[in-house]
Amino acid sequence: MTHRTARRNEAGLTTLEWLLIVAAVAGLAALAVVLVQNVVDDTAEQLGGSSARETAANVAADTVIREARTASPDDARYNTWQRWELYFTARCERLEILYSDTNLDVEAIFVKPTGATDATPPTVTELNKADANAAGTGKPQAICRRRS
């Protein structure tokens, strides 16, 4: 006499396997959706952040110009035209380092008025007249902006 073991219903086992496979695929699909949403959200945050950093860089450049125009001639950091030129050119150029993540390339031009020497002390009136378009007008030139 041969010994036979009773077998379970093959159809029931197959149905259970298919249910497990379908559940696993559904779980993977849900995970993929969550991952894609996270990537899209991160990308949107990065794009928004870079735009804000570019705006901050432009505001910082405008601040350097405003400070150059309102500088106190009594301050030893810029009490001659040469020191004024060097100080504010360096301040503007440092923005490239501070905002390097925005690929900022600045144009820094701070030039004394025509007729003034490097050792001449600036006056408040002259500093207030500093302008981006002052080349050759007898006024000091102050430019700190993003290169085109």
Task: Describe the overall structure.
It contains three helices and two strands; from the N terminus they run H-H-E-H-E. Helix 1 packs antiparallel against helix 2. A two-stranded antiparallel sheet has the order 1-2. Helices cover 56% and strands 8% of the residues. It has 148 residues and is mainly alpha-helical. The protein has one domain. It starts with 9 loop residues before the first helix and ends with a strand.
In short:
This protein is 56% helix and 8% strand.
List the main descriptive attributes of the protein structure presented here.
mainly alpha, 3 helices, 2 strands, two-stranded antiparallel ribbon, single chain, 148 residues
Q: Round the Cα radius of gyration to an integer and report it.
A: 34 Å
Helix and strand pattern: HHEHE
Q: List how many beta strands DSSP finds.
A: 2
Mean pLDDT: 85
Helix content: 55-70%
Structural class: mainly alpha
Q: What best-fitting shape do the alpha-carbon axes yield?
A: rod-shaped
SSE layout and pairings?
Elements: H1 10-69, H2 81-98, E1 106-111, H3 124-128, E2 141-146
Antiparallel strand pairs: 1-2
